[in-house]
Write a structure and sequence with these properties.
This protein has 1426 residues and is α/β, with parallel strands linked by helices. Strands 5-6-7-3-8-9 form a six-stranded mixed β-sheet, with helices on both faces. It has a six-stranded mixed β-sheet with strand order 15-16-17-12-18-19, with helices on both faces. A four-stranded antiparallel β-sheet has the order 11-10-13-14, with helices on one face. β13 and β14 form a beta hairpin. α21 packs antiparallel against α33, α32 packs antiparallel against α39 and α33 runs antiparallel to α35. The termini are far apart. The relative contact order is 0.08.
Length: 1426
């Protein structure tokens, strides 16, 4: 059937309801084919530059076979159309020929893409889908014109294209050639465009998560493009910090790095805008159709019925297209977020390896990862919406002008209001957010430092004080957050007001300015309000997106500030840096040429004029008193000190280092020893034997697979040292540096280790390893080839055994006068002070022990756990306000329905309609303010307090078993959830639920026949949330679990940075961090995908509802009025957003609350120390009598862990008041465990009494605070010298305001006098005189490790003098000081502790030479006493 209209593109009169042939040939063939060929050439040129990733195989051959058939069909179509002269137009041959060329081009693109692309492109997937639709349209046209042959060819072509589309969607994971890329690529990374867009790759995860428990290994790789190493490499190309760069340099670097993924979000977002703004026209057509009086009786074959069918199809396409566009756009946004997140975290991890030590030890990357980078990831999708908000607002104004003329321009007023108000909030929100994040960073940093020394803090009885300080930091953080929360409340309330007042403004303008043309009918009002609804959304988004944009710049600036911190500069000179001297001429490993050395960031040289060579196979002993600069000398060799003068030349080789502060990651003993070296069983056994670890491995559970605990907490001090030395020996480095590493070992073990390593047949001698050893052991002199003697005041001398045979006597002569002078000069002052203190000694109990146990909870227990601190009444009031807000939000549509039914202007309706936005926004502001200012702060403080109590009351055994990274995760990520996420998700869940129910009620009220779909809708939503929720909750839990190893690794990096640099393990450490970051990224990305999948399904559900509504409306016109259907359709436009927001918010809330299960489990199930109920007498211990008779004692274990073997067995001894007892034994024999039992850390069978008080019956923290304890590990608190010496005097949050009273002034002066006298007595006062004396900051004093130990001893002396305690426990109190300083300490202790009972653990015989009794321990038992 030939039609005259086929010769024009768009005729004025259509003979049939169909496109013309010329339109199809021009618009549906020539244009798409030309575009495909043009873009296809560019695509092929792009693939030509890529390597071949995919091997050829059956998949490619099947694709080529199908493509060849398609070419044949297109050639047949060309032949048929060439011979059909009756239907041929002037574009027929050109269109058919282009189809043939395009099909041939498709073959080329298929081959290039299959080989050079890991996954199919969106270009090919979209082209094939559009081609299928075009073939279907053409087939219909041919069949309508009796061109059956061409119609059959078009149908066949559509089928072949569908087959090609399916083949293109097949994942190519198993065909990837490179195994590294194959391992990093999952189903999504190798699937086609439509599989990715419809999230088919999430199917296996949802099924597994629904039926089983998800584990990290169950999550497939997310793609090589998200590899942390790749992201780091990409961002590093654009990130080059300089002094001249601006404050937005990091933000711009991210933009330039990932501008491609950013641009990929634009096209689907533009399509979403087009689909959304098509909905008002669909609404207008539906209402017009219902209100039409033409009831044609032509049946379904009539033209009007055909138009109705097209209306149904258009509704389906618009709503489904909107859902797909929204899903693809959100997917692209989150892919960009994962890239930015991974790149920034990788940058911070790399930076942490290149910082100076003091900056690195603050653990800033941990807080950056949870606060700044997390904030960027949250705000980035909102920022991308900003240009579309303005675009959609402008487009909405134009379309409104087409509907209601000049009245439409009134919408500019809400737009201007929204912009101005949101920019105002953005101006204030950024500084508020910055201040809040600073508080978070401070708290997390302090907690990280406290956790590293928590066991020793508990031994001193300082746990309650430090816990109060940690909680005080949280309270300050919460108070600071209230400003940001109030701004957020104002912004949300303003957004709500603008959202609701906009339709009111438009209605008023249209009524008063005649925009409705005198008609107030459904055909006019509802399309206008539908347009307004699509303008409201971007307007409301401005209130959050503009502040988010301002905040995100603050987050980037904070991250940039960290990345721009000064980096570690190695002042050493490597042979390759010497232009005039070849590398081969550099024979020594290290050469000092007139070197003057200063501590890092200090301008004063500690050592001067060092001239020294360290040769292969030599052993150099560095000797000198405490504080003389031994560690500074070692730091210079490691590149961690400043060279003020001269040159230090050192070979560019790894240096095996073992320092006074041991670095052991929380892993097995074998992995600690091997490190990043290659494991070899024979060599490992040799090293273990030489380092005297064989006996220890035999006794430890699991042997070499024994987990050492955080910082080696599960090992004794001596075992930690020997494992660290074993790591240095195992590395086979040419140069080994031991910085006073033997001080924590008992004498026999230390001598045996020296002999095995440095003896004539020692391990280092046999391997010709150069060794630099700094030690206070005189025996180390016997193994040295040269001596470096530090004589004080920067002087240094170098000698050899041949030139200085009397080195021992020379050292004694050199330092003995200073010690004696010190002792004599301080003696008189000390005696005077003792008399004064004895009369004024007070004993003030400091019992701050509380034990709040949570009861067993079931069902909604996690919600109850979160709300426990908030209060039920205030929560009920808030919930009532939120429900009222949701009802008030939906009320304008109900009012409007009755108003439109009247079809006239009514003043009463107008006033009521106008008042509702003010009521709803007012309720919104009050409810959010109540949540953010009252409820959220209460829960934030309460849960933090519960966690802090659990951590500080946990037993030592539990702290040794729990990963500190997990505890840090609870303090950072979980507390961030409590403070920020959960309150917002709670509000959104209840608010959108009430709004959604209101909108659903409005839809059903206007279309009662949709009630039949409610059961189906409820069933879908039920299974959807159940299926989705179970998986998403597990993904969130996996997110938190995957973060813990990463946090631990960052902590380990900061603690062991000197070791990592010296061993040259930066690359291996970054590889490990990259792997951990990749694992941490997987659950985050998959959780994002699950959320987008949920939104897509809900959009499809809304599309089905819209389809049903239109079907019933156009085919059952008398079932409902146009007014009722109009308001229902209007609600349908936003109902999918409400449903999506409800389930997304609820799921976020469930996953966030579910993440608190770990927090609740820790707080409720972590074994706490059981306090006794016996109050301690005033002045206890007043005598110091100790009676011990126990059969067994063991460390407590964590939850679900087997009971440990006893560490003490059959211990019995009695100490009379004023006596001194020494405890000796091999490292790991149980010496420290005896002190732990005396301090109440170990459950025991038997009795331990101190001054007739049973230890188990006493309050633990008060007991420890009453006993003076000197721990093996130095406890140095951030702050001044005074604060370190008087830690029990600290108070936070309740300091009195105003000047001190005269009594307080006198007492403070007395304490300062005591502090000064003790510091002078211990010869560590001189360093303070020029930098503030007692107000000097400890970190800036520059104390050596030994001097810091002297400061800890001074703290114990001060504590004794102020409290009058008669029991002193000393655990290797002088292990890191030289023997001459040890004499001074013993003299000081003898003076100030003369009437005290003293129990001393020592490795030096002279330390316990004056002991009244000595106990020798082995394997937890006393084997000798004398």
């Amino acid at each position: 059937m030939r039609l005259s209209m086929d010769n024009v593109v768009w005729p004025s009169v259509f003979q049939i309801l169909d496109f013309t042939l010329k339109f199809e040939e021009t618009i549906l063939e020539i244009v798409p084919s030309s575009l495909f060929l043009l873009v296809g050439i560019l695509v092929c040129l792009h693939y030509r530059r890529q390597p071949i990733y995919i091997r050829d195989g059956p998949l490619l051959f099947v694709k080529l076979g199908a493509a060849a058939i398609l070419v044949g069909l297109q050639v047949g179509s060309l032949a048929l159309r060439s011979t059909a002269e009756a239907y041929r137009t002037n574009t027929t041959i050109a269109a058919a020929a282009l189809d043939v060329v395009a099909s041939c081009g498709l073959v080329v693109v298929l081959i290039a893409e299959h080989r050079h692309a890991i996954r199919a492109s969106a270009f090919l997937g979209l082209y094939l889908v559009f081609s299928i639709f075009i073939d279907a349209i053409e087939a219909r046209s041919y069949f309508n014109r009796d061109m059956s042959a061409l119609g059959a060819v078009s149908v066949s072509s559509a089928v072949i294209r569908l087959i090609l589309l399916i083949l293109d969607e097949v994942p190519k994971m198993n065909l990837i050639i490179d195994p590294i890329i194959r391992d990093a690529s999952g189903k999504e990374a190798t699937s086609g465009f439509w599989s990715r867009s419809l999230f088919f790759f999430m199917g296996p995860i949802f099924r597994h998560g629904f039926k089983h428990t998800l584990r990290l290994q169950d999550l497939a790789a997310i793609g090589i493009e998200f590899s942390s190493r790749r992201l780091f490499t990409e961002i590093s190309k654009h990130w080059n910090p300089t002094e001249e760069m601006g404050s937005y340099a990091l933000l711009l670097a991210c933009f330039h790095t990932w501008k491609g993924p950013l641009y990929a979000t634009l096209l689907p977002r533009l399509l979403l805008t087009g689909f959304n703004f098509s909905q008002p026209y669909i609404l207008q057509a539906v209402v017009s159709t219902i209100n039409s009086t033409d009831d044609s009786s032509d049946g379904i074959l009539g033209d009007k019925s055909r138009l109705d069918a097209y209306l149904v199809v258009a509704t389906f396409l618009v709503f489904v297209g909107s859902g797909l566009s929204r899903g693809v756009s959100a997917h692209m946004k989150y892919r960009l977020v994962i890239r930015v997140r991974g790149g920034l975290i990788a940058l911070t991890m790399d930076k942490s390896q290149r910082l100076n030590l003091p900056d690195a030890q603050k653990n800033v990357p941990i807080s950056l990862m949870s606060a700044e980078v997390g904030g960027i990831a949250e705000a980035l999708p909102q920022c991308i919406e900003i240009p579309f908000s303005f675009l959609e607002s402008g487009l909405g104004v134009y379309l409104l002008w087409r509907f209601i003329r000049r009245s439409g321009f009134i919408i500019v007023c809400p737009l201007v209001f929204a912009t101005m108000v949101s920019m105002t909030f953005a101006h204030f929100s950024a500084p508020a957010a910055k201040a809040w994040n600073k508080r978070i960073e401070l708290r997390v940093s302090k907690i990280s430092q406290v956790l590293a020394q928590l066991p020793a803090i508990k031994m001193l009885g300082l746990a309650p004080k430090i816990a109060d300080y940690i909680q005080y930091l949280r309270i300050q953080e919460v108070e600071t957050s209230k400003t940001s929360r109030s701004i957020t409340a104002g912004a949300v309330a303003s957004a709500s007001f603008c959202d609701l007042i906009t339709p009111t403004t438009i209605i008023a303008a249209a009524i008063f300015w005649g925009g409705f043309g005198g008609e107030f009918t459904a055909e006019v009002v509802y399309p206008v309000l539908a347009l307004v609804a699509h303008v409201q959304e971007p307007l409301a988004a401005l209130f959050t997106s503009l502040p988010a944009a301002k905040t995100i710049t603050v987050y980037f600036a904070r991250t940039q500030e960290f990345l721009c911190q000064p980096e570690h500069e190695d002042p050493r000179i490597k042979p390759g840096e010497l232009a005039a001297q070849p590398i081969s001429d550099f024979a020594a490993l290290a050469v000092f040429e007139g070197v003057a050395v200063a501590r890092r960031c200090s301008e004063t040289a500690v050592l001067q004029n060092i001239d020294l060579e360290i040769l292969h196979g030599s052993t150099t002993a560095v000797l000198g008193p405490t504080g003389s600069g031994k560690s500074t000398f070692i730091d210079a060799m490691l590149g961690e000190a400043d060279i003020m003068d001269g040159r230090l030349l050192i070979k560019d080789i790894p240096i095996a280092y073992c320092g006074q502060s041991v670095y052991l990651p929380n892993t097995t003993i074998q992995e600690c020893i091997v490190g990043h070296s290659q494991y070899a069983e024979p060599w490992f056994n040799t090293v273990v034997e030489c380092c005297q670890l064989v006996e220890d491995l035999q006794r430890l559970p699991g042997g070499k697979d024994y987990i050492v605990g955080p910082g080696g907490m599960a090992l004794s001090g001596g075992q930690r040292i020997r494992v660290s030395i074993a790591r240095a020996a195992f590395s086979l480095a040419q140069l080994v540096i031991l910085d006073d590493s033997l001080s924590s070992l008992d004498g026999p073990t230390a001598r045996a280790l020296l002999q095995a390593l440095l003896g004539e047949n020692g391990l280092f001698k046999q391997s010709r390893t150069a060794v630099v050893i700094s030690s206070n052991m005189a025996d180390s002199v016997d193994f040295a080839d040269q001596y470096v003697v530090l004589e004080g005041e920067g002087k240094i001398s170098v000698s050899t055994p041949q030139s200085d045979p009397d080195i021992r006597s020379r050292l004694e002569w050199l330092f003995k006068p200073e010690s004696e002078a010190t002792s004599n000069s301080a003696q008189s002052a000390g005696n005077a002070s003792t008399d004064q203190a004895s009369g004024n000694a007070v004993s003030e109990p400091d019992d701050q022990n509380t034990d709040a146990k949570l009861g067993q909870q079931v069902g909604m227990s996690l919600y109850s756990f979160w709300l426990k601190s908030a209060g039920g009444m205030i929560f009920s009031v808030w919930l009532f306000l939120v429900i009222l807000t949701g009802v008030a939000d939906g009320s304008p549509k109900i009012i409007l329905r009755y108003w439109v039914a009247e079809a006239v202007y009514d003043e009463g309706y107008f006033i009521l309609y106008t008042a509702m936005p003010f009521v709803a926004s007012g309720l919104c502001f009050v409810s959010i303010l109540l949540l953010f200012r009252v409820l959220a702060p209460r829960t934030a403080r309460g849960l933090h307090e519960e966690l802090t109590k659990s951590v500080f009351k946990a037993s030592l055994g539990v702290l040794g078993a729990v990963n500190t990274g997990s505890i840090m995760n609870m303090y950072s990520l979980d507390m961030n959830l409590v403070a920020r996420m959960i309150p917002s998700y709670t509000h959104n869940t209840f608010y959108y639920t009430s709004c959604g129910l209101m909108q659903l009620g409005i839809v059903l009220a206007g279309a009662l026949y949709l009630l039949a779909a409610i059961p189906f809708l409820g069933l879908v939503l039920f299974f959807l949330q159940r299926f989705y929720l179970r998986t998403s909750r597990q993904l969130r839990q996996l997110d938190l679990e995957a973060q813990a190893p990463l946090v631990t690794s960052i902590q380990d990096t900061s603690r062991g940075l000197v070791y990592i640099r010296s061993f040259r393990w930066q690359t291996q450490n970054m590889d490990r961090n990259f792997h951990l970051l990749d694992e941490a990224q997987k659950p985050v990305y998959l959780l994002y995908c699950a959320q987008v999948f949920l939104a897509l399904v809900l959009d499809i559900v809304a599309a089905v509802l819209a389809l049903l509504l239109v079907i019933f409306a156009v085919y059952l016109r008398h079932a409902a009025s146009g007014n009722a259907v109009g308001v229902s359709f209007l609600s349908l436009i936003v109902i999918s957003q409400c449903f999506n927001a409800v389930i997304v918010s609820w799921t976020h809330l469930e996953t966030s609350i579910g993440a608190l299960s770990r927090l609740r489990k820790f707080t409720q199930n972590t074994p706490r120390e059981q306090d006794g109920n016996t109050p301690l007498p005033v002045g206890w211990p007043s005598a110091g009598k100790v009676e011990v008779k126990i059969s067994a004692a063991h460390y407590e274990t964590g939850l679900d862990q087997p009971q440990r073997l006893p560490v003490l067995k059959n211990i019995a001894f009695s100490i009379e008041p004023g006596k001194k007892v020494g405890i000796i034994g091999r490292s790991g024999s149980g010496k420290t465990s005896i002190l732990s039992a005396l301090l109440g850390f170990l459950p025991y069978n038997g009795s331990i009494k101190i001054d007739d008080v049973e230890v188990r019956d006493a309050p633990r923290d008060e007991l420890r605070s009453r006993i003076v304890t000197i721990t093996q590990d130095n406890i140095i608190l951030e702050g001044t010298i005074r604060q370190n010496l008087l830690p029990f005097d600290a108070a936070w949050g309740d300091q009195p305001v105003g000047p001190m009273t005269e009594k307080d002034t006198i007492e403070a002066a007395r304490k300062d006098t005591i502090l000064r006298e003790v510091l002078v007595r211990l010869r560590i006062w001189d360093s303070l005189e020029e930098i503030g004396e007692l107000d000097a900051i400890v970190d800036k004093v520059g104390y050596s490790h030994g001097e810091l130990q002297m400061l800890c001893i001074a703290r114990a002396v001060v504590r004794r003098r102020l409290t009058g305690s008669r029991l002193v426990l000393v655990d290797e109190g002088t292990s890191t000081v030289d023997r001459w300083r040890d004499v001074l300490v013993r003299q000081t202790m003898k003076q100030y502790f003369s009437d005290c009972t003293i129990i001393v653990i020592a490795h030096r015989d002279e330390t316990i030479a004056d002991a009244n009794m000595t106990l020798t321990l082995s394997h937890g038992e006393v084997i000798r006493r004398r």
